[in-house]
Design a protein that fits this description.
Elements: H1 2-20, H2 35-45, H3 55-66, H4 71-74, H5 81-97, H6 109-112, H7 126-143, H8 148-158, H9 173-185, E1 189-192, H10 227-230, E2 231-232, E3 235-236, H11 247-255, E4 267-270, H12 280-287, H13 289-296, H14 312-322, H15 329-334, H16 353-359, H17 361-369, H18 383-391, H19 396-402
Antiparallel strand pairs: 1-4, 2-3
Amino acid sequence: MDSIVARTGIQRTLSLEKYLGFPMLHGRLQRRHFEFLEEKISQKLASWQNKLLNKAGRLTLVKSVLNSIPNYYMQIASLPQTICDSIDRMARNFLWKGNSNGGVHLVGWRRISKPKNLGGLGIRKAREANTAMLGKLVWSLHQEPNALWAQVLKHKYVKGTTFLDMNKKPGSSVWNTIMKALFVLKDGFEFRLGDGSSSFWFSNWSTDGKLAVKVPFVDIHDLQLQVNDVYVNDNWNFNLLYTNLPSEVRDRLQSLLLCLNALVPSRITWKGNLDGIYTARDGYYWLNRNEFVCDATNNICWSWMWHIPAPVKLKFFIWTTLHESLPTRSLLCHRGIIQMDLCPRCNRYTETILHCLRDCEFAVLIWKSLGFIDHGFYHENVVYEWLRSGIHGANIYTFLAAC
């Protein structure tokens, strides 16, 4: 009888695993639990039709595959770092090499994984994408406390403490996944005071910690006080308190600039957008905020390039050119792939991007035959300025075709 029950249990587990599309997770998550995910992505990228794609086509396929296959699993489990590294590696190898072993990675992964308006291609990094999606579980656990799954987890692990303020606590694979996302995203959540209906002593409404831990004790008459009971008409009414506030706490509160709004409830919000509602997209941008903000200060504007009325393969070519990463002999020599950097056509000058596209004798003949005879056309020494002036000129299609 025991063997029959065991077989029945195994069969039910296998049926559920088949329905879900991945094995049931027990204990610590390991690489072997997600090897099927690597196989799915690899098979999708390695189909025979992909051999006919150019780099722009590969880019479209990579983004569609990475936005469809791993997304479901990234929302329910924290993938091991080796799996995330493998997904990123498959994406960049397919982009530059396709299904062959030959090819040069012309632009680094750090640049590729940035948004298009910051000079990247908008391909998401697997680790940050995974964490951003798991952030929705963190947000739902806090915002939907009456949901059955939230009640189960809170009863087992939270037990009366504040979820967003609790220390790391081990548990099931699901709970460990939520805790990992919480500790990475915790700084992105903030308390928005709103109407001041939060507890004056036991909520972190001042973002400086709970006031209850800064006083020897809270008088029983003050236990139910809210912020809007003590802060009235834009002034603090400390005389209302039976509890003795230390002078440093009073000075700190006096220095705060509060603006209560009776129409907005006091609650935890996400600081990554104006609505205060967490989304995976906002979470991903917040995780990369230091890198994105740093590049946003760059003088180069990238948005205009993606709005050029031209095929995507030409936009990809221009994007590579603006990163000064065309495989000219100058670049290949700099990377140690070849020894000589002289132009193979004139054999006189170093083959830089501008020399290859414009300044070589062979290139000059082509440009002049197409009507580009203005001397100012040949005097710009910055690739970005030369390309932008040519693309925004009257002969945009001739210019792009000649490039």
